[in-house]
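TL;DR need structure tokens for one chain.
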Amino acid sequence: MFRFLLLLLMFLSATDAAAQGTIPILSAVQGQAGETEYSVTLQLLGLMTVLTLLPSILLMMTSFTRIIIVLSLLRQAMGTAQTPPNQILLGIRLFLTIFIMAPVFTQVYDDAIAPYSNDEMELEAAIEAAQIPMKDFMLRQTRRRTADLRQHCG
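>> reply
TL;DR here they are.
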């Protein structure tokens, strides 16, 4: 009987915990100035999506692919199929990519990330500001003839 009363007391005291407010799962709230505020859960979902796609972003939007091709051709031209090892080449590729992309990343940080972190800019405006230096870099790496061909075909 004592166990039953103890169990009943535990269940009755748990109703207070169930009555507590919950964190909104997925919500977007319009602010007074027209800005949209996203719930923490939605922000984490976006962050996890970006982190999942980070390797493909690295390949598509940086000079990483060109460096891979050049170093692979250089290794084949020297006649060394496995020297230096692929892990060493990968480290060199990442270092060179960071070195080449440092001015672009600095501009993205100064124009988008820092103002967003200081609450001087909304998320949508920060994304727009971050796209500008990345687009400029990618356009500088594209030949005019190739861009015209893509525009004509697409």
